Amino acid sequence: MASPVDILSKVIEQTAKVIEEEVDAKLSKLNEMDDDELERLKERRLEALKKAQKQKQEWLSKGHGEYREISSEKDFFGEVKESKNVVCHFYRNSTFRCKIMDKHLGILAKKHVETKFIKLNAEKAPFLTERLRIKVIPTLALVLDGKTKDYVVGFTDLGNTDEFSTEILEWRLGCAGVINYSGNLMEPPTGTQKSGSKITKVEKKTIRGRDYDSDSDDD
C-alpha cells in the first residue's frame, strides 16, 4: 500500500506533467504561426491596449480617478448624465461617520477609474434628499445610466461597525454593479470582517422610493 507521501508525490508529478503538456501545446501553436499571423496577433493586442488607454483617458477627462466634492444639486445632474457609473456620497460636516466613508471612497476612486466618485453636502441638496428619500447620513447613491439603482445606507451593509474595511465597501459596490468587481459577489471578502460585526450576502433588491432619472431636473 502506497504511503500518503508517495500518493502526494505522484499527484504533484501528474499535475506538473499536465501543465508542461499545455505549455508545450501553446508553444507549438505559436511556432506553427507564420509571420503574417504573428503580426496580426500583435496588432490585435496593440489595438486592444490603445482602446483601453483611450477609454481610461476619457474617464479621467470626466473627473474619474479622484474623489471630489460637487457644490450643488445642479452639478449632480450634470455629473450623472456625463458618466455611466457614479457613486455619490450624501454627507454632513457634523457627521463623524462621513469622514470614515470619505477615507474609503478616496481609495476606491483611484482603484476603480471606470466609476465616478463624488460627494454632495445633503444640507445643500434639499430637492435630491427628498426625491431620493435620504433619511440617514451618510448615504451612498449608486447611479447607473442616469438612474439611482441602489443605496448604501449608513454602515448597515458594511457590518454595522465604524471599522469596516475598504474591501467590504468595494464588495458592496460590486454587488450593485456600479464598479467592475473581480472577486466573488456571492460572499463578502474573507479576512476583512471585524470582531462582533455581521455581514451577510446582499440580495438584489428594489430601491426604496422611486428611481431618480437624470432627466427629471426638467420637471
pLDDT < 50 stretches: 203-219
Derived from helix and strand composition plus strand pairing, the structural class reads: alpha/beta
- Give the helix tally: 6
Instruction: Choose one word for the global shape.
Output: flat
As a whole number of angstroms, the C-alpha radius of gyration is 24 Å
What do we call the CATH topology of the largest domain? Glutaredoxin
**Strand residue content:** 5-15%
Overall mean confidence score, pLDDT = 82
Secondary-structure element pattern, one letter each = HHEHEHEHEEH
CATH arch. level architecture of the largest domain: 3-Layer(aba) Sandwich
- How many domains in all? 2
Pfam family, one: Thioredoxin
Main location: cytoplasm
Keywords: Coiled coil, Cytoplasm, Cytoskeleton, Nucleus, Phosphoprotein
Subunit structure: Forms ternary complexes with the chaperonin TCP1 complex, spanning the cylindrical chaperonin cavity and contacting at least 2 subunits.
Compose a concise summary of this entry.
This protein is an alpha/beta fold. It contains 6 helices and 5 strands, in the order ααβαβαβαββα. It folds into 2 domains: 4-59; 65-214, Glutaredoxin (3-Layer(aba) Sandwich), CATH 3.40.30.
Topology of this protein?
Elements: H1 4-32, H2 35-61, E1 67-69, H3 73-82, E2 85-91, H4 96-111, E3 116-121, H5 126-131, E4 139-144, E5 147-153, H6 166-176
Parallel strand pairs: 1-3, 2-3
Antiparallel strand pairs: 2-4, 4-5
